[in-house]
Every structure is written in structure tokens, then in C-alpha cells.
Amino acid sequence: MEINLLHVIIAVSLVGVINLITTVFLKSKVSNLQSKLDEQTKASNIKNAKETAELKVTVEQGTKAINTAVLAINKDISSSLSKTEENIIGCYSQVQAELKSVVLTLSTFKENSKAQNESILSLLTNSSSALLENQKISTNTINNSINEIEKSQKTLAFSHKQEQLSNFEQLTKSIHTLRIENTIEITNELGKHTELTVDTEEFTKQLGNCKVLKITDKHSGQVTQVYYENGVKRSSDTFANEQLKYQMFYSADGNPEKGLEFNGQEQIVFEYLYDEAGEINQRTEFSFDESGKGQKPTVKAY
Length: 302
What we know:
Elements: H1 5-177, H2 183-192, E1 195-199, E2 203-208, E3 211-217, E4 223-229, E5 232-240, E6 243-250, E7 256-262, E8 268-274, E9 280-285, E10 298-301
Antiparallel strand pairs: 1-2, 2-3, 3-4, 4-5, 5-6, 6-7, 7-8, 8-9, 9-10
């Protein structure tokens, strides 16, 4: 088929018409779309404005409610804080009052404890003093009793020793007066020997003229020397380690009258007096201070 210029022009014209129609249609469509879009945008803006207004109102109402709630909460908090403060102040005052009461109680307890302690201490001191005094008195009593016992023992020992001397004297007299078959032989023997020694387990006795002249105690080592006047025993001296320990004095009948006991310095510490039966009826004790000065003697009667 032969294409001519007319056909080209017609085709181009058709294409141009089609493009024009298409353009017009598209423009019309675009205008419609733009109108709808504008309407929708306007409606949307109105809606958004409305919603924004409503939201603003809602926000304002919420803010107002929140502010009201906050104010209420603050009011409640203030009220609670005020009540709490009042409670704290009340508790503090009560605690202070209780502390004052406790302090007063402690002070009273301390004063009472101090008074009780002072009373207990005073009681203990008085008790201790009383106990010490009683102990001192008891000790002194015991010591005095012991001293008295020792003195009594010394008195008994002294008396016993003198009894032994008396017994020896009596024995000698018995020997002298004994009437037996060998009296002549004994007399002859004594005549040959002016002194005679008698030795026993306890004593060594020296006799002369049928009299005891000297007695030696083998256990204690004490030596007693007996002195006579006109054949009658009148005194005796007892020595311990060559120091005078005892002295006895006898009556004209040979009975004991007085006895003396000496200390290590040969000072008289005891004096014994005898009755007619030869028993001790009085004891006098002599004491001395550290310088050797004599004190007031103590006399005890039996």
C-alpha cells in the first residue's frame, strides 16, 4: 500500500488530536483529583483542627484535673506532714519525758545504790572491825590461857622438882633412921666415905653425912645444890648451863617456905609461897620491858 503525504498528515493530525484529547482528559482528571485532594485536605485540616481543638480541650481539662489532683495531693501531703510532724513532736516530747523519768530513776537508783554501798561498806567495815576485835580478844584470851597453862606447868614442874628434892631428903632420912640388921655395916661404910654417889637412870645424887648435897638431872642437865644449917635443909640452888634457874628456901623445920624462878638474865620472874602443908598458895609474876626495867608484878592466889 502506498503511503502518501496525506496519509502522514492525517496520521499526524490524529496523533495530535489523540494527544490533545489525552492531555485534556488528563488535565481534567488532574483537576478533579486536585479538587478532591483539596477537599480532602480541607476536610482533613478541619478534622485535624477539630481534633486538635478537642485534644487541646482534653489536654486543658486533663491538666486542670492533674493540677487539681496535685493540689489535693499536696494538701493531703501537707496535712499528713503536719500530722506526722505533730506526732513526731508529741513522740519526741514523750521520749524526752520518758528519758527525764529514766534519768531521774537512774539518779535515784545511783543515790540509793551509793547509800546502799556506803551502808554495806560501813557494815562490812564494822563487821571486819568487830571480827578483828573479837579475833584479837580471842587471840589474847588464847594467848593468856596458853601463858597461864605454861605458868601452871612451870609451877607444877617447880613444885614437882621440890617434891623430888623433898622425897630425896625423906629417903635419906629413912636410910639414916632405918633399923635393919646391917645398920652397923652401913654406918661404918658412911664413916669411911664422907660422900656417897647414887646413880639412877634419871639422876645422879651425891650424899654426905646422910644428906643429899647435890642432884644432877641427866635429862635436862640441871644441877641442884642443897644447903644445910645445923643439919636442917634451909635452901637450894638449881643451875641450868651454869646459870641460876631456881632457888628454894625452907623453914627451921625443913619445910618449903618460898621458891624463886629466874630468867636467862638471872632476874626473878616467879616467886612461889607455900602453906604449912608444903603446897603453893601464891604465885607472883615479875615482868620486864625491853630495857630490863621491872613492871608491876602480878599476884595469883591458889
